[in-house]
Amino acid sequence: MYEKLFAVLLSICLSLPIITGCSKPPQPTDTASPEKKVIAIAQIQQETNIFSPLKTTLSDFEALELKYGDEILTVNQQYELGGFLKSVRDFGHGNIQVLPIIKAWAISGGPIERDVYERFKSELLQGLTACNKLDGIYLALHGSMGVEGLYDPEADLLQAIRDTVGTEIPIGVSFDLHANVTHKRVQLSTFIIGYKTNPHRDQFKAGYSAGEILIKTVNGKIKPTMAFRKMRLLKGGGMNIDFLSPMRQIFQRMKQMERSDDVLSVSNFMVHIWLDEPELGWSTVVITNNDLPLAEKLAEEIADLDWSVREVKHPEPVTPAEAIQIARDNKLGRKFGTTVFCDIADSVGAGAPGENTWILKALIEEGADLISYIPVRDPEAARQVFEIPLNQTITLTVGGKLDTLYNRPLEVTGQVIHKKEWIYGKTVILKNKGMHIILTEMPVPAMHPDFYTDLGLSLWKADIVIVKNLFPFRIWYWLYNRKTINVTTPGVTNINVFDIQYQNITRPIYPFDNIQSWRW
């Protein structure tokens, strides 16, 4: 989920004249109008790489978004919650009162500290109990959140909500396309819907669809009926693009299904593979209007289609040295644009620390003459160099401090040519020949060209640009990118499941086992 980081900087404030809300828990809310239906909304969202050595802390949420009550309604409304609020205006007809409780959202990273998760859960429950009238709940979740010492935290959250509000109040949930949907989440939710694009481009639409279904449900106009299929399939969902083969045909079929008046939503969850839980695997979810046989049939069909393409291979990544040679040989492409290296094993967008030094090492040894831009997260080094005067040359060791399992320290030398303090903390550029080493305090996905251009670097002049993100960059860099190369190194976001140190997944499962059916 990762163009979101940049969208925070460009958030759009919407005018919401029909909406009021609970203040920050545990303060009581205003009494809702008796003729209005009351829907509480909340977002607790982070995609977790359970194998990352770095924990996700409260400060990580505060750095991106941690809002309460009415302040939720004034920022960053172009994603799920904004879509939901638009549905209130379109389908509520002035008879829906929205009660915003909490919006906690952090960039992808390691497991969330347990006390931070428990705090958010407590604040959400306090907000629900403070609302003296409640007809529905909308939750914008990721679906692949990980918490220290806890399996399936989204199910834990749903269970706590059910224990608080009971079983009758409808709960609508939206998930990222890479959610790990479990049986318990399905049991506790009234309906679950997911994004239908990868790279993700329809978060607003997902929230809008969830709002339409929930509003019509609380008004008694429809009865959402959900079918769910859990699959013994653990292929890297992050490498499957909705508009390219083989997934294109499947998502087209899903759109055909949704054209039926009786079908409310069809979702296909190609799971985030960097979790380690007993129910890890792909899922399909279909929502109909009170037609369970139809929902079961369609959920089964999508699962069969997923299974039919399980053996389609992903593009083979190359080593840093091979990537540099490919870029060097791509003279025409470099003349009219740049070559983008996708650092797949250190993908900040999938929860990696962002301090890979392997590609940098190869550039020093074999590509120093090429103009390259490479971000390296090293808080200590960034702060140290930030105090050095511009144009001075410095030699120091970077990397290998956060992830000592996969990364190695590397000595670099460069001239300090730029400094900036912004969303990524203290940031400096060291230039050595053609290399531009960008040291940052915070992790950098670099999925949007603005990261580089805001530092005064021209994408037109670069031979090589490194990104630490699997998909959104493929849209954002289209103007400059003449060739994308997937580069493999040691790291916590290795896309080969055989290299991931799973301990808790349920076997048998494809591709680890030679099984003939996806059925759980």
Summed up:
With 520 residues, the protein is of the alpha/beta class. The protein has helices at residues 4-9, 58-64, 80-91, 114-130, 153-165, 183-188, 203-218, 247-258, 292-308, 320-329, 331-335, 358-366, 379-386, 450-453, 473-476, and strands at 37-45, 65-68, 96-105, 136-141, 171-175, 191-194, 224-230, 263-269, 283-289, 338-343, 372-377, 393-398, 410-422, 425-432, 435-440, 464-467, 481-487. An 8-stranded mixed β-sheet has the order 12-13-14-15-11-16-10-17. A 6-stranded mixed β-sheet has the order 2-3-1-4-5-6.
Structure report:
With 520 residues, the chain is α/β, with parallel strands linked by helices. Helix content is 28%, strand content 22%. It contains 15 helices and 17 strands. An eight-stranded mixed β-sheet has the order 12-13-14-15-11-16-10-17. Strand 14 and strand 15 form a beta hairpin. Helix 3 packs across helix 7. The longest helix is centred in the N-terminal third of the chain and has 17 residues. It starts with a helix and ends in a 33-residue tail after the last strand. The N terminus is likely disordered.
